[in-house]
Design goal:
The longest helix is centred in the middle third of the chain and has 17 residues. Strands 5-4-8-7-6 form a 5-stranded antiparallel beta sheet, with helices on one face. The chain is built from 1 helix and 8 strands; from the N terminus they run βββββαβββ. It is mainly beta. The radius of gyration is 15 Å and the shape is globular. About 25% of the residues have low confidence. Helices cover 14% and strands 38% of the residues.
Length: 123
């Protein structure tokens, strides 16, 4: 899996044990994989002011300006639900950007997780 934010890859490792290799699993063509659920790559995004990771209506991880911002999560859920109803069924968005004069939000989905990153605008 590729990280939805630029060229930073989401850590994924191969798992050859039948019982699994950790708490988070993904299966791709029958190959069991473990996904790092620490989301440490989010702290490496340049000029980020904060982020939220949520799944199933609950915040999984947040930091910075977006720490525990459930109101932001609610707005993002509405944005993603509107975009999924207004595009053809076989198409899925890769990334949505909401821009303001001094900052912008990048919204992306990967698997069951939705990622929201607040970043500063370059001057």
């Amino acid at each position: 899996l590729k990280n939805p934010f630029y060229a930073i890859d989401m850590p994924i490792s191969y798992c050859d044990q039948p019982t699994g290799c950790g708490t988070r699993h993904a299966s791709l063509d029958g190959i069991q994989m473990t996904v790092d659920a620490n989301f440490a790559f989010l702290s490496k995004i340049p000029d980020q002011c904060g982020y939220i990771v949520f799944a199933d209506g609950a915040i999984v991880k947040s930091d910075g300006d977006l720490s525990n911002r459930e109101s932001t999560m609610s707005v993002v859920e509405k944005i993603t639900s509107v975009s999924s109803t207004s595009i053809p069924p076989s198409t899925k968005f890769n990334q949505i950007t909401v821009s303001y004069p001094d900052h912008f939000y990048t919204i992306s989905q990967s698997g069951k997780y939705t990622f929201v990153v607040k970043r500063k605008v370059h001057a």
